[in-house]
Amino acid sequence: MPSLRQALATYINHNAEADELDNIQANKEIVWTENLLKSIEWKLFEDLCMEFLRIKNCDAKVTSTGADGGIDIKITDRNGIVFAIAQCKAWSKPVGVKPIRELYGIMAGERIKLGLFLTTSGFSEDARNFADGKSLILIDSREMVEAINQLAPNGRAKLDGLIRQNDYQTPTCVNCNTKMVKRTAKTGPNAGNGFWGCVNFPRCKNTMKVRKQFDASSTHQ
What is the band of 139 on the pLDDT scale with cuts at 50, 70, 90? Predict the structure, then answer.
């Protein structure tokens, strides 16, 4: 399975002089951790992945909020043709083979050359086995953090600024694209337990479970 750098270099001319981050000043070097990555809510994780790809000189754009047909990010070449698609999952459990098969199926159906799957967790053995030998790149939390920390200081500073200028732990409603609010169930088997609810309730009844909290402290050198 090709590395992220190798796969993208096949289609993109990496020109360091064109890097938009050159004019961004970084006062401190930021060291990312897996806990910091795992604490990011799903929508902001998509934005983080998009910005990471842009730092790598990819023309990456996040698809619209909601049902995305299995595509979260599209990457186009110089002619505006989509040559790569990405799926981003802010999950705590390992990604199984089913979502990887679905991504590959979309690639085949739309004749996409490259597929990326990025997650805040990891991948099951059968998921990795399925991707092996295909134009699929699986990036787990460890690999993502390693790739971010290998960026130039200005690149890391931009990604850190992206999450710190937002409420990066409160999830976004998939239907309304607004931050959710924490509520407590009053009745039923989950009475007394907390959950995330949409601010537009009762018009929108979307809910999400409260994820395990991580120590999201990043290290500054």
Answer: very high
Q: What DSSP designation does 179 have?
A: B
Lowest mean pLDDT across 47-51, 54-58, 217-221: 217-221
Q: Residue 52: inside a domain, yes or no?
A: yes
Q: Are 88 and 45 in contact (CB under 8 A)?
A: yes
DSSP state of 79: T
Phi-psi region at 66: left, alpha or beta (left = phi > 0; alpha = psi -120 to 50): left
Backbone angles phi, psi at 161, to 5 degrees: -65, -35
**Could you tell me if 106 and 135 are in contact, meaning their C-beta atoms sit under 8 angstroms apart?**
no
CATH classification at residue 51: 3.40.1350.10
| Tens-place pLDDT, residues 143-160 | 999 999 999 888 888 898
Residue 199 domain-assigned? Answer: no
